[in-house]
């Protein structure tokens, strides 16, 4: 069933990883499988055997040609540097070549205690596994670069967090698992050769256009390229009200994918200070801070490459500083691209930024649901729509804004119908609402009932199209079910 493994990472020198076979589990059961993704990865599904698949995705059977390993990395966690994190419970089976010819990592998360476990249990509870499954797949369908979920299995064993929970393993697919923290691991050891190897691997896998650049330019160009992807990525998060929640440098992907779905959540009523994670006491990773944290992480990345950027350290620092400084402008530009689209604007005008900001102010003062407010703009292109207005607790802001917006829309090349259609293709109706996610996870973990999970998965598979009978999935949480805190508990 598995496609052929390439073993790119396993061929790196020994100090990049520790060979580690997944620890078998008691009674693996396949609870979710992503057929479309499997096909894209070249899996042969003609004789698909569910029990065999469960054995594979639990790590009980290692597929032929895989060389399982735990990757070494470091990372700044909430601003504090930890020189040795590494895969404490994840195992990379190897890389496969997808239908488009790209290498993709296949990793089992929750596969047992590796030598990087630091006293933790090496396992994952079912709730967080399903959470990552649902949200990463939803992000993909919402058009955001992200790691993907190929399968989830339960293990037949219990894991102990706040309460005992069913154990599970997630099969994660990524463009790669190279992180800012991977570079930091070797930079902290002053292992310049290893940093160069990693940088060349990042170029080979994610930025092949840089391979032909002069060596004297290549590594600063890599910082720029990673930065461009991060700026675009975070702008997309901001456009969806997505809050990652743990933007530590070990969770910052060199490929520019969203990675590590822990306490992440989508904002409902618009407030830039929104923060869900219970472990983020200082609000470091609140919604409004995300771009600036991405920039901070990129600065840490650039630091690891300084010796490769220029022999003269002063010149290296100057070059890197100039690049990192430019993040602000790049991000602002990406953000404006996202927000213009969300308001149905294709032309670019001077006043657009102010128009976006005024809309956000109206959302904030009216405590309106972020997702639905954008979505229902499609109903208000020509005249005030009660469906939109009812989202606002106070309406002065939005009522003053709508005529301004329409005046601007009148200068677009297309008419109201086409603009409404445009709005519906960029502003989703369905996102993984926190209370719906919680409901699905609780039913699965506490009652072994996967119906709500399946139902939510189905709704999220088509986020831009109205699905009759599924209105409840589009609505913010009723006050009794609102989720204000998410727990890492992973
Ligand atoms: P995360 O918060 O998921 O980004 O993880 C940070 C670090 O903690 C990584 O090195 C993980 O591998 C490790 N880690 C998280 N949970 C566990 C666990 N249950 N067992 C072992 N290591 C873990
Ligand atoms: Mg992580």
TrEMBL record:
<feature type="binding site">
    <location>
        <position position="179"/>
    </location>
    <ligand>
        <name>ATP</name>
    </ligand>
</feature>
<comment type="similarity">
    <text>Belongs to the SELO family.</text>
</comment>
<keyword id="KW-0548">Nucleotidyltransferase</keyword>
<feature type="binding site">
    <location>
        <position position="89"/>
    </location>
    <ligand>
        <name>ATP</name>
    </ligand>
</feature>
<feature type="binding site">
    <location>
        <position position="121"/>
    </location>
    <ligand>
        <name>ATP</name>
    </ligand>
</feature>
<keyword id="KW-0067">ATP-binding</keyword>
<feature type="binding site">
    <location>
        <position position="122"/>
    </location>
    <ligand>
        <name>ATP</name>
    </ligand>
</feature>
<dbReference type="GO" id="GO:0005524">
    <property type="term" value="F:ATP binding"/>
</dbReference>
<keyword id="KW-0460">Magnesium</keyword>
<dbReference type="Pfam" id="PF02696">
    <property type="entry name" value="SelO"/>
</dbReference>
<feature type="binding site">
    <location>
        <position position="109"/>
    </location>
    <ligand>
        <name>ATP</name>
    </ligand>
</feature>
<comment type="function">
    <text>Nucleotidyltransferase involved in the post-translational modification of proteins. It can catalyze the addition of adenosine monophosphate (AMP) or uridine monophosphate (UMP) to a protein, resulting in modifications known as AMPylation and UMPylation.</text>
</comment>
<keyword id="KW-0808">Transferase</keyword>
<protein>
    <recommendedName>
        <fullName>Protein nucleotidyltransferase YdiU</fullName>
        <ecNumber>2.7.7.-</ecNumber>
        <ecNumber>2.7.7.108</ecNumber>
    </recommendedName>
</protein>
<feature type="active site" description="Proton acceptor">
    <location>
        <position position="250"/>
    </location>
</feature>
<feature type="binding site">
    <location>
        <position position="86"/>
    </location>
    <ligand>
        <name>ATP</name>
    </ligand>
</feature>
<feature type="binding site">
    <location>
        <position position="260"/>
    </location>
    <ligand>
        <name>Mg(2+)</name>
    </ligand>
</feature>
<keyword id="KW-0464">Manganese</keyword>
<keyword id="KW-0547">Nucleotide-binding</keyword>
<dbReference type="GO" id="GO:0070733">
    <property type="term" value="F:AMPylase activity"/>
</dbReference>
<feature type="binding site">
    <location>
        <position position="251"/>
    </location>
    <ligand>
        <name>Mg(2+)</name>
    </ligand>
</feature>
<feature type="binding site">
    <location>
        <position position="172"/>
    </location>
    <ligand>
        <name>ATP</name>
    </ligand>
</feature>
<feature type="binding site">
    <location>
        <position position="260"/>
    </location>
    <ligand>
        <name>ATP</name>
    </ligand>
</feature>
<feature type="binding site">
    <location>
        <position position="88"/>
    </location>
    <ligand>
        <name>ATP</name>
    </ligand>
</feature>
<dbReference type="InterPro" id="IPR003846">
    <property type="entry name" value="SelO"/>
</dbReference>
<keyword id="KW-0479">Metal-binding</keyword>
<dbReference type="GO" id="GO:0000287">
    <property type="term" value="F:magnesium ion binding"/>
</dbReference>
<dbReference type="GO" id="GO:0030145">
    <property type="term" value="F:manganese ion binding"/>
</dbReference>
